[in-house]
Amino acid sequence: AAKKIKIRDAAENRAPTRVKVSGWIHRLRDQSKMIFITLRDGTGLLQCILTDNLTKTYDAMTLTNETSITLFGEIKPVPEGAQAPGGHELHVDYYEVIGKAPGGAEAITNIVARDADNQTKYDNRHLTLRGDIASATLKVRAAVAKAFRQSYEDLGLLEVTPPCMVQTQVEGGSTLFEFNYYGEKAYLTQSSQLYLETCLPSLGDVFCIQESFRAEKSLTRRHLSEYTHIEAELAFITFDDLLSHLEEMLCRTIDYVWNDPVTKQHIIDLNKEATNEAKRRGDPTVFEFKPPQRPFLRMSYADAIKWLNEHNILNEEGKPHAFGDDIAEAAERRMTDIINKPIFLTKFPVEIKAFYMKKDLEDPRVTESVDCLMPGVGEIVGGSMRMDDLNELLAAYQREGIAPEPYYWFTDQRKYGTTPHGGYGIGLERFLAWMCGRYTVRECSLYPRWMGRCTP
Ligand code: 4AD
Ligand code: MG
Fold it and tell me: What keywords are assigned to this protein (predicted)?
């Protein structure tokens, strides 16, 4: 009898000779007397060969891409000199069509052609998901999330699941999504940071991989309305400890991902495709992912301002940068692309950073804060040491015009055994855009949301 397998089993030499395999027709090649089906089942691709009588039925003659089908036959290694994905092929002796897919104008490749506009592409995200690029990106995404979890376990952090429905802001009122919570005002969380801070005395160092929400009113390559936020919080650390931990986490995670041959191949393929795609846009950039060298370059905000001015990169008003200016996305991206390696940008001025950040003891104009910048994307991580003094925090609420009442539970951390502590948040989609050479974070989300898009 035939044993039911997944395509991955054949690629990994775990399949018996006689098998039953089900999937969707990814590609179809009809030659005289033979039909070649590239079958896709989500775990890989398998070349299936129909010969003789099998090619002469009505079903065989009307096969279309994306038809679902079950095939029976013998798995054999691909003959010397020939090529097929996974190195195996299926010599089919029987098959059943399960669900036909339309050809012609209704075929997926015609509904969303390669050069379709973005509206069409994202309206049909449920169909484009079946393509090589989307599926490779989402497989790398799963591998990256798994690797982050593994690294956190190695370093002894515990995973928690903070709430998404909250009544406090973290990163400024202008990007809050508000909703009606049984008649009370509530928000979708912008960051789980404040909740992670409350876990320290109970659970020790913690992390979460949770959705964050930002009502971003601009359309950029790196902003989503909903994104996956990898956040961690550590107690009894210094700012230097925070930077070392972050570098260790990023490098360890990248090593796990890069040492997995299947994932590595996806990353290489995606970067090659990015290079070709850039060429079509007339952009000569060559995309190639390489695990970064340690230690990461550390640059203070003040030095970055100098660097930008030395390189004639202007601020948003078209003037030279002054201390206190926000470094806008375009300037940040140019700087990172020129330096072309990861940068820890540290010690941002108090005025341009969030209310909870601890001030630098040596220079009270700046905070113990860090952004990690990566070529092609810019900021992928934001973190800081937190104000651990009760009175300083109360003053910060007042300075920022934040009503302290809803934060009573956060404030209490400073009352019941405060400690120096800090943490950070990594945007998973930005991390992936960097690693996979994607043009926008939208490609790194299963069903991306941004201003104007909440479907499918
Ligand atoms: O720099 P942010 O706003 O920092 C925080 O939220 C901190 N409370 C995190 C912490 O310390 N626990 O966001 C952190 C990261 C950014 O560096 C970026 O990678 C990502 O989250 N991010 C977004 N990604 C996609 N779309 C958006 N609209 C994003 N906003 C932030
Ligand atoms: Mg930030």
Answer: Aminoacyl-tRNA synthetase, ATP-binding, Coiled coil, Cytoplasm, Ligase, Nucleotide-binding, Protein biosynthesis
Fold identical between 3-106 and 126-444?
no
Residues 217 and 238: their CA atoms lie apart, in Å, by 35
Q: Whose C-alpha lies nearest to ligand 1, atom 11?
A: 424
> Could you report the predicted ipTM of this complex, rounded to two decimals?
0.99
Predicted confidence (pLDDT) per residue in 177-198, tens digit: 999 999 999 999 999 999 999 9
Task: Spell out which residues line ligand 1, taking CB within 6 angstroms.
Answer: 170-171, 191, 193, 214, 216, 223-224, 227, 229, 231, 379-383, 423-425, 427, 429-430, 441
With a CB cutoff of 8 Å and minimum separation 6, the contacts of 328 are 315, 316
Domain at 126-444, CATH class: alpha beta
3-state SS, residue 28: strand
For the chain, domain boundaries: 3-106, 126-444
Ligand 1: residue of 152, 157, 191 to mutate (most ligand atoms within 8 A of CB) is 191
Choosing from 430, 431, 438, 445 the residue with most ligand 1 atoms within 8 A of its CB, the one to mutate for a pocket test is 430
User: β-pairing, 158-159 with 206-213?
Assistant: parallel
Please tell me the pTM assigned to this model: 0.97
